[in-house]
Fold this protein.
Amino acid sequence: MLLRFAVLAVVLLVGGCINQYRGEPRMWFASHDGVAPREAGRVSVCHGFGCQLKTGIVFNAEDLAEMGKVMGTPETADEERASIAKLIAWMETRVAEPVGSADDIGGLDLYNAGKAGQMDCLDEASNTTSYLMVANEAGLLRFHKVGGPVARGFFLDGRYPHATAVVVSERGTPWAVDSWPNANGVEPDVMPLAIWFKRSSAR
């Protein structure tokens, strides 16, 4: 899995990963054996590191209504990003029981590789992108569109490979929505993608 991620990271970097977010999010799923959201509210939640395990989840009408309540009615892009963070935390909590991810540990945690319910950044980037796509299809995103996930670090630059989901504001500014550093159900780190790229992979 680490080798596959290193190769993916190199490909993204050589191809200009700073602009990878401009691509169709579904391309990300095709690149590393994930499963893109299908139909209304149906996702495959990745876990076990590297999307080795997948659990099907359907966000039903009741879930979608609750998602609308969590998002509220933000009036600016800044407010919407704050709502997005709350929504991702809610969705992680929603899927925790069927996926077995309630005790998913945040950050670099190689000891739990392969364990059901535990997620590395590939799982997190995939899942967060799936959740954002569901929110977008439900009409909950007004000021942002869902971008393709991006990767940074590829060992040769002294950084452990790391990936994040991305949203792009109306002005074209990409923002990282990074669930990996935090435990399940905790709001993801949301920051300009340019800042995210400059960070080490341990934070």
Observations:
- The CA atoms of residues 46 and 54 lie 5 Å apart.
